[in-house]
Protein 1
Amino acid sequence: MSVLRRFKPLLDRVLVERFAPEIRTKGGIMLPEKSVGKILDATVVAIGPGARTTDGTVVPISVKVGDRVLLPEFGGTKITLEEKDYHLFRDSDILAKYDESS
């Protein structure tokens, strides 16, 4: 079993994988790394069970595995699993969820 399948975030944490930046323009010109902006889109890879309120009830997470989300430019915790970079965010830090149905 892979490490990623066994990785389970705690509480209201969401593990995401950022999309790879485009390093080539539509015309085929290669872009240097410094000119490529930070990618704010990501795919949800794993979610925790949700945050707990003071009376003990669990508040469910607003995203599910496989959702495409918009992240803040800064924040989150970078972690490396199986030589791939992932980021861990709180559910409340995620800015938006893309609606894939339309």
Protein 2
Amino acid sequence: CLIWWCAAVMAMRAVASALCVAVLCVHVCVGDYSTIAKQIMAEAISSTNFTKIEYMCDTFGHRYVGSVGHYAAIDWMHDTMIEEKFDYVYQQPVDGIINWVRGNEFAEMLSPRQYSMNILGLGNSVGTPHDGIKAEILVVSSWDDLANKSSLARGKIVVYNVPYTVYHDTVQYRAYGASNAAKYGAVAALVRSIASFSLQSPHTGSLNYLPNITQIPSAAITIEDAEMFARFQSRGQRVVLSLFMEAKTYAPISSSNLIAQVNGSSMADQIVLISGHLDSWDVGQGAMDDGGGMFSAWEAVRLLNVLIKSGQIPRPRRSIRAVLWTNEENGARGAKTYNSTYWSDLPNHVVAMESDTGNFDPNGFGFTGPQALLSVVQQAAALLAPIGTGNITSGSTDGLDTDNGMLYPTVPCMTLETNGYYASPPTDLMTALYFFYHHSHADTITALHYDGLPRSVAPYPPSNYVYPGSPNRPVAG
């Protein structure tokens, strides 16, 4: 049952304009791991408990970088990892983090009636003047619609009423809506929340200001309000809003990534990385985004550590490293710092895995990497079929910290995929459960799916055990 895998992994590195080519050769016998994989998955399903994630979210609240809860949670996680007797625990310093603070904020419709709105300022947004902004609105439904109505935008608050389709498409309006409205003289931008469902709940997230364009304040509003404003405009009714935001960016601050490792045996310098991000936005508890993903990574490596040290399974050849990233939500400084710190060692990272798509109904992994490696990953994934997570999708990953330019293309990347992240079928938004809660006050422990979380932990240990178990060593050219 031997499967031979030889894949060329090429990474362009802008270091003295040199090209570094990594050639990865791995020999895997999937059948050899069938029994041990079943043992590990059964243990993960039966022994995963929720004490740690419940304690963390309830005790420290959200973990937005710069908050008291953020640093207290990191200290608690670090101390807990020490108590769990990993082979290696490290609190990696991360500097230069954007220090954006929301402050007080409110919005009110003044005409055609008085109405107090639910809003959440967007991360990195500037604030309004001290006395706020009072202006008529202009509702648009797309970039083309904005361009067609550009002559009407000056002095207005542009409202983007763009229905949710999939996150990667719709989020562009949150990211660039302010700058594109400012190009035409708008004084502020309000963005329909990037959400598949709403109960008058705004959903925050970062915006990106384009260079050489006036920076105007921007906030997320509810789906209900965006649709109401569109109806007002279609009837020819003039809508006037008052907007106030104290948002401000201060001097950069510091935080930490957390690293916990189970050392390998004969090839301990080779790394299989599994990860989630430890920070959250400044609303809710960050239980789903990304408490569940972070916990899955941590728990998977903890489980392997227990099984190895109790003699139930042998130590893998390669080391297995859990990395809990900081500052994913507003700058990804954690992943960038890891990349720069371990730059020369990245060719020794066999694969980087991440969970940041919720824990509703995991079905497999998205994969980004060489095609030759994909075939081996797909065969190894057969071990995960008993728990329904054996599906491997090429080119489909949602891990900002791993594959989005941070570790990929030097390191092949995989992301846990769940049925609750994408609508299925695409028109049935009620199945996109992740975006009911994402970046909102509703992201609390109550949003976690307690059946899905053990199944989110279970795929990682056997996957991480198979990859470290292959005997051939990657050779860096």
Protein 3
Amino acid sequence: MIEEKSAAVGEEKRLSKGGFPSRKQLKDCLSKPLASINERYRIYFVIIFIAFTQGILGLADLSVSYLYKDDFKMTPAQVSAATGITSLPWIVKPLWGFISDGIPFLGYRRKSYLVFFGATGFICWTLLSRYNVTSHQGVFLLLCVQLGVAFSNAIGEALLVEISKDGDNNAHKSDEEKQGEASKNVSLFFSVRSFGYLLTTYTGGVLLEIFPKREIFTITSLFPLALAAIAWTLPEKAISRVPSAEYAKVPHEDTETAPLADAQPRDSGVASPRKNIKRVLAFIRLPQLWKPILFIFVFQMTPSPSSAMFFFYTNGLKFAPEFMGQLKFIQSIANISGIWFYHRFLKFIAFKKIFSWSAVGCFFSGMTQILLVTRYNVDLGIPDKAFCLTDSLILQTITEINTIPILVMACRFCPKNIEGTMYALLMAALNFGTMISVQLGGLLIAYLGITESNFSSLWILILIANVTSVMTLPFLGCVNFEAAQELAEKRKLIEEVH
């Protein structure tokens, strides 16, 4: 009775006159959900700025290409090798995801890394702009720049996966709704990145006509610095590593399999790196996962003629930097158009159907470049610039439609608490395949005798690149992408390791 009376008195104190909650109580009731909404939007803001920064760094792309060609006097094959070296941080991207997931830096898993690598990017671009570096020094600085961009990208994608797989919001959603949520977030991230790239592609060409390339490097250095500043707004709590004994005591909803999402509370702590390694290794041993990863890698590793095409555009067709900027501008519009088209019309269509048809579309679009390098377009009365702009628009749009389903699929593959590691692993398959593609292209460039002035065999390289790109399609039926998604959704991914 005393307890009941005390409870009644307490209740009276909690209520204002008339039995209604007081203003303070209403404020307290509303503040928690509003704070949750505010936190979600702040996370989105950081994700968007990471994507935007990655895209807007395209301002220096043309300047870097001309730095290789004019200042460092590199051949097409050497440019391919340098590109391969600077892309190495993207190949080991799972390592950056693993470090971010399992090794806090200054008490945080995300924001402190973003600040550090933003500052690193600023320093490297500044050194490139202020000093006459050698080719080896320049490649090293660009390697460091790409390390910072790759690490920041891994963190941005980890945040993207976290917010897409938020248990509170996704628990009662249908599979179609989850697919739509993942598609929305992936489309947002890559649309913003493409928009940032769009803003700088044409501008980069125009600025290169007006300013020395080193001044453009100075302008570029400001964006990673801005990212370092904005990273502090990320709503992330300081965390500490979860002791193994405590981790083993965490109750699981299944005695045979341990749901990763429940193994550790978000932001309260992080399992040891050894524990995370065991999780990841157990996950990727599953045939439902390693088969899709292997397929993505093999599809991406077909030879690329991109380095030779740059020399053909600039030395063969005598395109000025301004037009090269226009060409990249058109490609950026195509990227955004492809993302919009997928999100608007294709996001609920089966992965295999979209992927196979878009790959065939890429084949036929890519083959049209043979008309350009053999100069047959002139016989048809099509000007070089009009042909390049139209061809780039069509090819890049179809390529984006081909790529986005892979990114959405990867987003749904990732279990909670190792989001950065797993998403980075899947993206590394893409990036490693792309790097092998460029290197195979470089080897074929050397074998076919293609130089900065001899393009007589370039059509053969284009033919090989496009034919090999569709040779992997017959193996698409051997891969069950839906099975991996179901495993991730059910949280029955790996056995518990005590």
